[in-house]
Amino acid sequence: MVPGLLSGNALAGCNVELLRELGWQVRLGDRAQPEVAAGNPCQRGSLAQAHAQGELQLRLPIGYDEDRREQLAARLLQQPASRCAFAFKLGAAARRASARLQANPGYRFTAVQLGWIGFGARGANAQGWQRFRSFGRGYAPVAGNARALEAFYSGRVRSECGVGRQVAQLATLRELFGDATFDTAFTAGELSIGTFLTLHDTESILLGSSAGEFFADGKAVRTAAMGRQAFMAVPGFIAHVFDRQYLDDINNQAENFIITDLSEAAAQALAHRGGLTWYDARNRQIWELARQLPPQGRRGFERLLYERDAALRQALPEPQRGIVARIDSLLADPVYRQLMIYVHRQGVKPLGYHVVRLLDRNPRTPFAIDLTLHNLHTTIYQRWLGSRLQGCAAATASTIKRGEPWNWG
Asked: What is the DSSP string of 346-394?
């Protein structure tokens, strides 16, 4: 524990405790008024970096009673700095969830399948899900939310990448809230999965009636301005620019993702470029250059440009090596190399991998990148706050009921 910081029960109020859980450093001081140094932790790579910059600091007057402490803490919980502190938790949860999904060989992507989602020979109910729409277009948990998500961590399931994104979003919530709270904080209907159109007609916490306030920032203009951590766990998609008639592989017409990590250099590049629109133009340049190269065989561009296959490169005539060098220079941008996304069934890979991969799958169209609607910093944040405050209040009431001593500060 850092010297001078208040310990867990030195301030018994739940709002103050929740500030501390988010990463605020709370101290007592001899000033007459509170001192708040919130800063912008969204710009940092970790809480430790934020603290080193003097951010997320609260000094409370010694003479403040609990009511005033709690009122101030409640206001700070709704400030942008607290939402940024929450984003550190979102990022960690997204990385845990995507790692567990990626590690399950039984969670597959099947281009041709009988239904939108398939639960194999065991069936949906045996793996914790109940169908509410035909042809696998809609399922909701049965007998426990955490148990239902476990099917995607360790069961035998298949889906396309749109459902894969939904599952990654819900798995992030499971990791964020913890299994016990995940089971009680959300109804089964709120965790519905299926076609995106289906979700709009449900209670879905992602896109349905429970979603609440959405944050719309398709080209990441506001997100890039907010900073690095604002991207954590945010959903999006990579989609073809030209009409469907230019698609050769319909099963790779788009790739749905959640963001799992972003380097400082990539965050700075996005802020400098004002979001993703600049990168759509860069994608177009890469595509136009790739069109000047002959077909490279199965996974040819992936091997040539992402894996940088030395033999394949050496075999190219000199003029084509020059084209490859130009593409290399474009792909060297940190956003392509250090913006990490989870896509089912590719796992976690840098954005540039997907741009290159789609040159092989659909070589007649460039692709664009968009973030999609989400409620991570609005509805989900408020749900998380509510669950933590409820748990704190219940624990405090239990302590008082047992007659155990409690230091009220």
From this structure: TEEEEHHHHHHHHHHH-TTS-EEEEE--B-TTTHHHHHHHHHHHHHHHH
